[in-house]
Amino acid sequence: MRPAPIHPHCMLEPSIDAGQGREAIGLGHVAAPGLDARHGTVLTLEDITVSFDGFKAIDALDLYIGVGELRCIIGPNGAGKTTLMDVITGKTRPTRGKAWFGDTLDLTRMSEVQIAQAGIGRKFQKPTVFEALTVFDNLELAHKTDKSVWACLGARLSDEQRGRIDEVLGTIGLQAARGRAAGSLSHGQKQFLEIGMLLMQDPQLLLLDEPVAGMTDAETEFTAELFKRLAGKHSLMVVEHDMGFVGSIADHVTVLHQGRVLAEGSLQQVQADERVIEVYLGR
Amino acid sequence: MNQPLLVTATQKAGPRLSLVIGAIVLLTLIALPLLSLLPDGHSLQVSAYILTLVGKILCYAIVALALDLVWGYAGLLSLGHGLFFALGGYAMGMYLMREAAGDGLPAFMSFLSWQELPWYWAGTQHFAWALCLVVLAPGSLALVFGYFAFRSRIKGVYFSIMTQALTFAGMLLFFRNETGFGGNNGFTNFRSVLGFDITAPGTRAVLFLLTVALLAGSLYLGWRLAQSKFGRVLTALRDAENRLMFCGYDPRGFKLFIWVLSAVLCGLAGALYVPQVGIINPGEMSPTNSIEAAVWVALGGRGTLIGPLLGAGLVNGFKSWFTVAFPEVWLFFLGALFIVVTLYLPKGLVGLLKKRDEP
After folding, report:
1. What's the pLDDT tens digit per position in A66-78?
2. Is B50's Cβ below 8 Å from some Cβ in A?
3. Which of A152, A158, A165, A207 to mutate to test the interface with B (most CBs of B within 10 A)?
């Protein structure tokens, strides 16, 4: 559709066709529902600083995650990895700095619930599922849908939603346990269930805090496969200690140390970095 | 007291038997007021004492159910539900006092030589407005308190302490004569409700049946809520509030809804309690009353719908027996009961019966 004629005085530049001129730089663009990430970055953190009583947990940190990227964050204890996730999900407010989700959403002004609804999913370090509910119910609650009180009072599952839940049950390999209480699952199964709940939310960006902690080798391998399949459709940010696991999934690794980015690049590159070796092996 | 046996049998025989037992209990409750209408001296006549006692226990059972909705399902332990119960009772009491006083002032006001009604008594001579107050007074207090408490993310023991403080503050306020609710004597000497003599067997029977209807209605409502997605969200909220928030649910709305609903149920129970028992005073707001309600729920089994009813029935049944037979040990017995339940029956009687069934 051709845009309406604009008076020459108001015209910033010629608007000829959609996809060029004003449209291409975002002017005159109507905000669409969903995430606007046309510039290719799903997450933009600039100059983020978090200080707790003068102690800087994160210090002027810059981080960019591209659409469809699988990024691993590694770093010794106290490097600020979990605080970083808290900042992105709205649990902790940065003392200074900018945090953008896509091109348009300012994370520092949004509540935790708004951020989750906008499309950032988070897996905790300790697997956290709704223990009293069944595996199926856990996934049902996570499903991306209207989550207001009124909607929940009269909610009925449609066949399509059931199909989606079954699909995710298959993806995480828990079909047989669908009717079991989530509290009775093994540690590894809980990890998978929590990942499944993230998938039900269908987020643009998944934050995963030590997803393979406490998993068996086979489970770790399965998780690596799963993440590689997810990357591309979703963007993933994985915090992990297990170097073998990081090596098997990541194309891009960021090393944090004392709240700053120490090195960035492929795993081989950062492992060869002098400073990284010093931090990990002691000075 | 053969109810636990009945429940065990229910577990074994499945839902059909529990329907039968539920129907028997319901029919008994409907038959009681009808039997009370039999002429004096008839062998099957149910005395007014028994009818009032059972009616009172049914009101308490509604409170237990309401408390269980917030504690058992949403994980919010309220130690101030007696306040909502008493507010509903006072709202009904205002109407009954006006009805008893006719065109004049209620007796306690004349005694204080007040010349006119305080503004908040306006319209209380109308039964319909009194009914609105029964819902609005506890409902709006719960709404305001809940809004600020949940917005500030107050939970756990802090929430319990604040509810306890709230009911204590309410009690102190209502104890004052200046508050205009009869001070420590409260309201009593009611004469009639909607023109019917309040002590007449027919009026008592109708009030009793209304209580049974409210209990059945609350039970049905609770059951529907527990079955719905809303109920599952509440359970999730109780177990992992952070996870729920990161799933995109705003817990405040869910807490506020169930909290206000629970307060309104308590208010309705209080409104039916007052005309049957014939008195309401600030003692109903005392912290011990609210704690006792928590004991009923804990004993019966929180997070179940039948448990609180069972707990309220058993504890109050024992209480009426003990306070007549050996009044001085009752409080020790109640305290011991709470300790035993906390230590050995974390899921209450219903949990015990269920466990025995699953070898």
Report:
1. 988 899 998 888 8
2. no
3. A152
Mutual orientation of helices B48-68 and B251-277 as an angle, nearest 10°? 170
Answer yes or no: is A91 within a domain.
yes
* 8 A C-beta contact, residue B81 and residue B66: yes
Is A75 a domain residue?
yes
What the block records as the tokens of A240 is: 């992990």
Give pTM, 2 decimals. Answer: 0.87
* Helix H or strand E segment including B299: helix B287-300
Nearest to B82 by CA among B199, B170, B154, B176: B170
Contact between chains at A149 and B253 (C-beta distance less than 8 A) = yes
Mutation target vs B (from A113, A140, A204; most B CBs, 10 A cutoff): A113
The CA distance from B245 to the nearest CA of chain A, in Å, is 5
Both tokens assigned to A202: 């269908």
Q: Does B358 touch chain A (CB under 8 A)?
A: no
Nearest C-alpha neighbor of B81 from the set B52, B101, B61, B108: B61
Query: Which residues pair with residue B193 across a beta bridge?
Result: B196
Burial (CB < 10 A; 0-12, 13-18, 19+), residue A131, is middle
Cross-chain residue pair B248–A147, CB shorter than 8 Å: yes
First to last CA, chain B: 25
User: Which structural domain, as residue segments, surrounds residue A255?
Assistant: 35-128+203-281
Tens digit of each residue's pLDDT (9 = 90 or more) over B230-271 = 999 999 999 999 999 999 999 999 999 999 999 999 999 999
**Preferred mutation among B150, B230, B247 to probe A, highest tally of A CBs within 10 A:** B247
Which residue type occupies B315?
Answer: V
- B354 close to A (CB below 8 A): no
ipTM of the complex in this document: 0.82
Instruction: Collect all residues with Cβ–Cβ distance below 8 Å to B280 and sequence separation of at least 6.
Output: B86, B89, B90, B92, B93, B186, B187, B188, B270, B273, B274
DSSP B37-49: TSPTT-TTPPPHH
Which residue ranges make up each domain of chain B? Answer: 3-357
Nearest CA in chain B to A155: B229
Distance CA B309, CA A86 (A): 43
Q: Could you tell me if B344 lies within 8 Å of chain A, comparing CB atoms? A: no
Q: Which residue, among A123, A77, A120, has the nearest Cα to A226 in the 3D structure?
A: A123
- In a domain, residue A46? The reply is yes
Q: Which residue from A54, A113, A73, A7 is spatially nearest to A210, judged by alpha carbons?
A: A73
Domain total in chain A? 1
Binding-site residues on chain A for chain B (CB distance < 8 A):
89, 112-113, 116-117, 121-122, 124, 128-133, 137, 140-142, 144, 147-149, 152-155, 197, 201
CB-based contact B246 A131, cutoff 8 Å: no
Report if residue A76 sits inside a domain: yes
CATH code: domain of residue A220: 3.40.50.300
Calculate mean pLDDT across residues B339-345.
Answer: 86
**Residue-wise pLDDT tens digits, B91-137:** 999 999 999 998 889 989 988 889 889 999 999 999 999 999 999 99
**Tell me, what DSSP letter sits at residue B72?**
I
